[in-house]
Amino acid sequence: MSLEAQARAALKRGDLPAAAVAAQALVLAAPDQAAGFFVLGIVAAEAGQIAKAVPLIEAALERGPQAEHLAQLAKLLILLRRDGEAADATDKAIALAPDDPLTLDTLGCVLARLGRHEESIAPFTAAVAGEPGNLEYRYNLAAANGFTGRVDEARTHYETILAKDPGNARAHYALAILSRQTSLANHVPRLQAAVAAADKPEDALRLRYALAKELEDLGDPAAFDQLWTANVAHKRTIGYSFALDAAIFDAIETLFADDRNALAAVPGNPDPAPIFVVGMPRTGTTLVDRILSSHRDVGSAGELQAMPLAVKQLAGTQSRAVIDPATIAASGPLDPAAIGDAYLARAVHHRPAGTSRFTDKLPANFLYIGHIARALPNARIVCLRRNPMDTVWSNYKNLFASQSAYYAYSYDLMDTACYYARFDGLMQLWERLFPGRVLQLSYEALVTDQQRQTRELLEHCGLNWDEACLSFHENAAAVATPSAAQVRRPLNADAIGKWRTHEAALRPVADWLEAQGFTID
């Protein structure tokens, strides 16, 4: 067996030390060949040493471009948030017409991370064709089909996965949120059996959320019990305390309490292209993003991490968290133009071609409105507002990325209510500091008076009227959020007042919010 074959065989069985020894021997024996450097790079990546892996794979590419090597480099660059370089490596790999399933699947995953969901369909399809029994490849293809509106194809692939792996929690959950369930077509009995059989906490979490979603679709109040059980367990697992988020709000309010001391008093980047759609999650941000991106002059860039990463990068703090009190405090003296430049440099790789404006709909950007207002003085900002109790309930029942620090509050009802209260207080601060910069758009008003609210929205964003914005549900662009099914239907009031289905269980939260001065409809 050749040294390269030995190295790859060791990699395949997960023996990293043996793979490294064989790869090092290969580098010494054939320093002009790429294989040894590539395997060493993969060994480093598998060991979690991403920064060390990149130059090794780059060294392999210096010895001749190969699609496999470019695809793995792109994957690592995405993990390092070097999206532009990842996109370049991906395009070069695709141009080499790879045919091995792993490379094709890797390229599809990178394209998806770049928001290029429509383009990801082809490599994912080819990967599944090349290795039909690989359920990971098939799951990725199913997800891409769901994001791009190919609902029937997505459903077929998920069912194929479940036929081979009946306990696959990701597939169960994806099927549950793919469309609205009905009394004639649902998976409740199958989900109940899967929940009973689940032996891993992460699987139980997804399965209970899937079951709760389907029960909620059917109007069954038992949905609450499933969520309660799942969320109590997950909050305990992640060890979350609301004090973590409270400290972030405190730091922002401290920094901007005296506006004169917040960010350097110099002009920001004047580019008018960005439109930020912010707010608590599950309050209509995806809906407004679809309305705006239906406009002839606007494209959706999706939920970008560009602003949080720009601030983190320039603040220079060493913590692993993207946002924390230390990073917020360190951002105070930053040059607003530098933040704006860094943001736009990151966003450019996600902007759809052919439009002069783009939306960034990361809901958590409401935390950065002070930075945005200074760094991008001509950017427009829209904040969605929704009935407090519908907001709390919608956050509580939605399974966000389970390891995301942004949404760790959502596994507890009172934590979510407290987060809402702090969100509301921060929005009041932004209005005092930057009057008129943020359009606070009521979800309920948009649903009940679509045309008038859409006109006000477009006017605030500096856009001419476009009739297509009223037919947002016909927008063919990909949607990679839990709202994908909803925004492909015409506007309706189905979600208004949904919390009352569980009013008895939610009454303590409603009472607390009312005591804080909020109106509960």
Automatic annotation (TrEMBL):
Source species, domain of life: Bacteria
Coiled coil feature spans: none
Cross-referenced InterPro entries: P-loop_NTPase, TPR-like_helical_dom_sf, TPR_rpt, TPST-like
Keywords: Transferase
Protein name in the entry: Sulfotransferase
Organism in which the protein naturally occurs: Croceibacterium selenioxidans
